[in-house]
Amino acid sequence: MARYLLRRLAFLGVSLALASVVLFVLLRMLPGDPANALTAVGASPEQIAAARHSIGSDRPLPEQFTHWLGQLASGDLGTSFVSSLPVGPEVVARLDVTVPLTLAAFVLAVLVAVPAGFTAAYRRHTWYGALLSGVSQLGIAIPVFWLGMILIAVFALNAGWLPSGGFPQDGWGDPAEAFRALVLPVVTIALVMSASLIRYVRSATLDVLGSDYLRTARAHGSSFGSAMWRHGLRNASVPVISVLGIELASTLLGAVVVESVYALPGLGSLLATGIAQHDYPVIQGVLFVSTLAVLVIGFLADLVQRFIDPRLRGRLSGGAR
Amino acid sequence: MSTKKNISYAVASAAALAVTLTACGGSGGSSASGGTWDKDAVVNIGSLYEPQNLDNTAGGGQGVTEALNGNVYEGLFRLTDDGKVDKLLAQDYETSADGLTYTFTLRDGVKFHSGKELTSQDVKYSLEKVTADDSQSARKSNLDVVKDIATPDARTVKVTLSKKSISFVYNLSYVWIINSQAKNLKTTEDGTGPYTLNKWSRGSALSLNRFAGYWGDAAANKQVVFHYYKDATALNNALLTNAVDVVTSEQSPDALEQFKSNGSYKVNDGDSTTKLLLAFNDKAKPFTDVKVRRAVSAAIDDKKLLESVWGGYGKEIGSMVPPTDPWYEDLTDVNAHDVAKAKKLLAEAGYAKGFSFTLDTPNYDPHPTAATFIKSQLAKVGITVKINTITPDEWYTKVYKNHDFTATLQEHVNDRDLVWYGNPDFYWGYDNPQVTKWVEEAEAASSTAAQTELLKKVNRQTAEDAASDWLYLYPQIVVASDKLSGYPLNGLNSQFFAYDIKKTG
């Protein structure tokens, strides 16, 4: 196990290094000039050159890259071209919104999807099993911004129970207010996420229900419940955990639409602003942090799968894909 | 929506010359003005224009003007509602007989937020900050006439110009007076205004606190918070749920009905200076021919376009000059909508069968709507329009810098920006030596009357040359809760003086 962990961590480090090179190079290949974001109409070539010089975008690429790596090594994500604010604290401030938003939505989605998906499979011949299945199919088709607008209209504009958007300027300084600000966004993401999760849980459960080992366990006298618990759950959770890992990772940045609908200062909207302004340090910082998060989530998902399924333990990067 | 912000500062931004309001200019909500108000109220302002940074000489953009101009920073002068210039930190000034030397006397007892007293050194520093080599201020080229700044004593500043510049004092209203010892101006401030910066949380809000040591009348509220939105609907929702009290510039006309029909809100229709232009490249065929430009202008029904984009709001214009500029004349008749005339002009120009051109269209509202409308209008006179949708960044590089276009759409937010037609190197390539000469003479004029006279000629000439097609003047719509009064109404795209806003409990 220790050897596996070491190899897996080395794999993580190499992935991160490769990702940082790729994202640095790709960014520089985008058309456009960060100096455009800083200069106004009537800017002379001298003013534009001065703007480039002040942010260092006129230096050779290898030099910019080593400079960035040097900063990274000392835990510094650099300084925004546009706002002059250090990127690190800004990313951290955005994580104050994004991490609770993502995790809460994720947990809620799992709490909804696992029982619902199981029921949809186990009771597939009943009317409510079919209904659950149908509703989840419909849920996948609903665009997240539309759902957001509906929830706002009902719970914020009409009922007035919750704010329609925004996040307190003092962040979690007033926990109740921050919590209220996140309720609707969390529900929005969770509903959309659970719709697709229900499908996965349902099909994994169906596989298990039709499996030979379950039938064998039952033939040996196990009750349905204990056979499901001992054998079914384990087998069903391996593929589902893969999907969960991917869902969680993609929500980190994928929440950008929800952030826009609810005017939340999250990581996704920071990235969107950075891209619009060619603010390379910001884009690099956000992508680096999110790449790291995605890799770590993948790593944890692997570990959990290996824990559940001993058959995977001989492989470097395990899991049913 | 973030792309929208990007372009607003590409063209609009730091150059923003919007008309400002005097202290008593705003007369929004009437119900509260007579009664008592909460002197310690917190006013929540909703805006789509977050600053890029807090320095208006380093690419702060339109948002920094909106939030900080007049609130946190003050100039020697301030623009009034009707486009005139008021003294602010300058108590008085004299101009020498040759018009080249300005002597300013500073107001006494003015303190910066850091506690330091305002001196002539700070004024010199602030002016030099705008004209410095690395300055990204859009005022830089206007203030390049400054040859020398002397500070004979702590309250006197003597500025010598290299040539006469009638707009000098007007341009000074865009120069923030900053403490010469202040540091980190992109993220902090040290001005003399009625508010100090409390906190800027990038991506969400910027709050200002009333400054106890202000030299003038204290602000009518204790705190103002600018809340920034990327999405107009989210902004309107915030107003509907009382998360914000006022929206500085309403950009979604569809949403206005819900506020108009609700007694708790007031919809104010003010004067704007933002024009939507169909800008021809006057150096690219076939728009080198004035007849073709006039034909296109006459073929498009601006009124109908305005109706479809803004409903009943906004105004038709016949030139670059908005009604609030001193040299305004109604020139909507010069190239009025007339399809028969358009066809006749095209035939005279040798394009009886029409022609085809590419219209570079920025990818955010209202440009795509306007482009589609123009395409259908011009089809009626045989002209085929190919719509090429581009990002703000592409527009800036392709059109603005490289002049690589035939025609484009763009919004121009500044007041007094007619003078760009005097610059033959500007992106639209309009080159009329007579106009260039008039613009130069106007700048060197000895009186505003003479300046106005000359710029009126420029106005008429550019309209007759159909230098561009000025489609319409944007409306300036401020929507506010009826608990609010004293907020500014006009030209708010760039400035939003908050110190007179009164809020009832």
Automatic annotation (TrEMBL), chain B:
Pfam families: SBP_bac_5. One of its GO terms (molecular function) is peptide transmembrane transporter activity. GO terms for biological process: peptide transport. It is a lipid-anchor. Keywords: Signal. Residues 87-414 form the Solute-binding protein family domain. The keyword Signal applies. Its main location: membrane. It is found in: Cell membrane. InterPro entries: Peptide/Ni-bd (IPR030678), SBP_5 (IPR039424), SBP_5_CS (IPR023765), SBP_5_dom (IPR000914). Residues 1-32 form the signal peptide. One of its GO terms (cellular component) is periplasmic space. Belongs to the bacterial solute-binding protein 5 family. This is ABC transporter substrate-binding protein.
